[in-house]
Structures are given as structure tokens and as C-alpha cells.
Amino acid sequence: MSSKLSTFFHQNRLKTATVQLNVAHVRKSIDELIHLLFPERMCEGEKTIEDIDASISALKKSFGNYFESVSVLAGNTEAKSSANVEVFFDRLPKLAEVLDLDAMDGSS
What is the rounded radius of gyration, in angstroms, for the C-alpha atoms of the chain? Predict the structure, then answer.
């Protein structure tokens, strides 16, 4: 026999959830992205350009899935996850540049 609390969570939370993300996977993807932006934080040694390219491809796929999952939260917008992923990754070099400048300003 189900408790009232179990019934509440099942009917009022699980059944009405619109976004389901694997939080551990999202965190792992963010960590991988941070390691690409700040390779000095990696303890894995050097990566080849092929390794980096493979990492970027895997991250783009993951982020596409994440963007698609959260697009349901804004029902009035079109889900353009692949375009959003490309824009996001295209802006990473500029982000890295700004973060490097910020780190230099903060260290003085």
C-alpha cells in the first residue's frame, strides 16, 4: 500500500515533470568544458587535437540534448537545439579570452 507521501510525489511531481536531465551527466559535461577552457586544471596530460575534436563533438551532442530538454520550459519558442549549440560553442573562444583577461586583472 502506497503512503500519501509516495502518492503525492508520484502524481504531483513525477507525472507532471516536464524536464528530466541526468544531473550527474550535465555536471560531467560542464567539467569537461571547463577542462577545455582551462587545460591547466586537467591532470590527464596533454591531449591531441584529435582528442580535443572528439571531446568537442561529444559535448556538442550532450549540450544539444540538454538544450532540447529545457526548450519545453519556454513553450512559445522553437526548439533549435543544434543552432543554439553551434552559437554557444562558437562563442567559447571569446569567453575564454574574457576569462583570461579577468584572471589577469584579478591576480594583480
Answer: 19
Residue 19 CA to residue 73 CA, distance in Å, equals: 8
CA distance 91 to 38: 15
Tens digit of each residue's pLDDT, the chain (108 residues): 568 888 877 776 666 666 678 899 999 999 999 988 888 766 666 788 999 999 999 999 999 988 888 776 665 556 677 888 999 999 999 999 998 888 777 665
Cα 49 from Cα 53, distance rounded (Å): 6
What Cα–Cα distance (Å) separates residue 105 from each residue in 98, 99, 101, 108? 11, 10, 6, 6
H or E element at residue 102:
helix 92-107
What CA–CA distances, in Å, run from 101 to 37, 43, 60, 105, 106? 13, 23, 26, 6, 9
Cα separation, 2 vs 57, in Å, equals: 45
Q: What angle do CA 40, 93, 65 make, to 5 degrees?
A: 95
